[in-house]
Specification:
Number of domains: 3
Shape: globular
CATH topology of the largest domain: Arc Repressor Mutant, subunit A
Structural class: mainly alpha
CATH superfamily of the largest domain: Winged helix-like DNA-binding domain superfamily/Winged helix DNA-binding domain
Number of strands: 3
CATH class of the largest domain: Mainly Alpha
Distance between the termini: 68 Å
Largest sheet: 3 strands, antiparallel
């Protein structure tokens, strides 16, 4: 008995399910690999962001890029400081602002984790030819672009520019998050101003205020 060919929708559902499984197992595997370095995944994400930023940053910037709330982030930073991987300072401009930065030991540990991760990936992709790697990279880029289009759907932006800027996330996630947040806030302000202007031009009986 011949198998019934999959419909396009069935294949899309299958791909989506594969990605869900991939994200779950990648999360678990990476968390497991970090145990060798006595780090949790949230701790490494925070440490990596600090190392990549390479300068003191406010706690609020860390909460933005890691999606952690303030109390949780305080606990993560406390642990990194206790391990000698990060340190707190005070802003010279505003002493009320607490800044966090990675120590030399933190940078060295983050480098070790990255090198081990790359080594594992090189082994994992060893069976693929250069042509297959190129095809995989193109497909991954297409999928990233698809998700970025959905994420940026409410904003007016050039997708080529968006895809270029997303590269900053790997090199400096804190800077990327700040850049994105500033742009979002600016666009929100423009929307509010446009709404207020259009509302002001309405006859008094038609005004929403």
């Amino acid at each position: 008995m011949e198998d019934t060919p999959q419909s396009r929708q069935d294949r899309v559902v299958s791909i989506r399910n594969l990605f869900v499984s991939l994200m779950w197992i990648a999360h678990r595997q990476f968390s497991q690999s970090l145990q060798v370095f006595d780090l949790t995944r949230p701790q490494f994400i925070t440490l990596h962001a600090l190392v990549a930023h390479n300068q003191p940053c406010p706690m609020r910037d860390l909460t933005d890029v890691t999606f952690q709330d303030a109390p949780t982030m305080t606990g993560i930073v406390d642990r990194l400081i206790k391990m000698g991987l990060a340190e707190r300072t005070r802003s010279k401009i505003d002493r009320r602002v607490v800044l966090v930065q990675a120590t030399t030991a933190g940078a060295d540990l983050a480098k070790q984790v990255d090198e081990k991760s790359l080594e594992d990936d090189m082994c994992g992709y060893a069976a693929l030819t250069d042509e297959e790697l190129n095809a995989l990279e193109q497909l991954a880029t297409y999928i990233l672009r698809m998700y970025m289009q959905r994420y940026m759907a409410a904003q007016n932006g050039d997708m080529n520019e968006v895809m270029e800027k997303i590269k900053l996330f790997r090199t400096d996630p804190i800077f990327y998050a700040k850049l994105h947040n500033e742009k979002t806030q600016h666009e929100r302000m423009e929307t509010v101003q446009q709404f207020e202007t259009s509302n002001a031009n309405l006859p008094e009986e038609m005004s929403v205020f």
